[in-house]
Specification:
Helices cover 20% and strands 33% of the residues. With 278 residues, it is an alpha+beta fold.
């Protein structure tokens, strides 16, 4: 169980399988913060709660707990650890942050994956078993893809999630299958934890300088490679009003589940755009 802030040093891997192969990998580091998150002071690297969740300046803890409550997971969640990229020299871009929801014994009961695209949009995938059983290293959890991430991948098909969490290591594998069930993209994030100290954070900064800018730059570099390889570019569709997707058969346990609350809070113009796109 993550009880004190950690530094997660990891490797990111992406491999596209068709219509043309394209692969890359690079080193990265994340902050692992028990929620509510304590400040991470520093001139070079910081954590801002406003970058995540509702992005209204509040700590994301209540936002996560509301989602867990909607799906009957709050009663078995003893603690939540956030795995996220920091702000570096004031800049941040988090392709995906992970909220590890742990029970009293430290078992992984759910993972909320908060995804951001380069258009400033946000969507979350809640990964858990329908019976709320612990998630083990061999489990695969599937969810429908409902969020536009890449202009070179259709917003369709499914994701397959796998998580392997130990006391000092974390592995995350997310594969994308197209609408015909063919595996099209494989990704992984694998690395180790170490207690977060100023010295370790400085060392990570210099080992992987401008890591947030690097992530954004690599997204555009890989996009250029795909264009050169002749992969068709698709326009961005309007975002669906639904902001949380769950893994298969995970149903809400409250009558006012997350979709209803999100729709009620959404401006009418944005809601109509989402409905027109369905």
């Amino acid at each position: 169980m993550v009880t004190v802030p950690q530094l997660y040093t990891a490797k990111v891997m992406h491999k596209r399988l068709f219509p043309k192969e394209n692969a890359f990998h690079y080193g990265v580091y994340y902050l692992v913060l028990p929620l509510p998150a304590a400040p991470v002071p520093g001139r070079l690297v910081r954590f801002h709660a406003a970058d995540l969740g509702r992005r209204d300046g509040d700590d994301p803890t209540q936002w996560v707990q509301n989602i867990l409550e909607d799906y009957g997971l709050n009663g078995i969640t003893q603690s939540i650890a956030l795995v996220t990229m920091p702000r570096v020299l004031g800049y941040v871009f988090n392709p995906v942050s992970f909220y590890l929801c742990l029970d009293l014994a430290g078992g992984l009961r759910a993972v909320l994956c908060e995804v951001h695209n380069t258009f400033g949009e946000q969507h979350s995938y809640l990964c858990a078993h329908p019976d709320r059983a612990p998630i083990t290293a061999g489990d695969r959890l599937e969810a429908e893809k409902l969020f536009h991430v890449s202009p070179f991948l259709h917003r369709s098909g499914t994701y397959s999630f796998r998580f392997d969490l130990t006391a000092d290591q974390l592995g995350i594998w997310i594969d994308h299958y197209d609408a015909d069930g063919r595996k099209q993209l494989v990704t992984s994030l694998t690395g180790t934890f170490a207690p977060l100290t100023p010295a370790r954070l400085r060392a990570a900064f210099w080992r992987h300088p401008l890591v947030a800018l690097k992530a954004m730059a690599l997204i555009h570099l890989q996009a250029l490679k795909l264009v050169v390889k002749g992969i068709p570019h698709m326009s961005k569709p309007a975002q669906f009003p639904q902001r949380v997707t769950t893994t298969r058969s995970l149903c809400p346990t409250r009558n006012d589940g997350p979709l209803l609350r999100i729709v009620e809070q959404m401006p009418e113009s944005e809601l109509q755009r989402g409905i027109d796109n369905v």
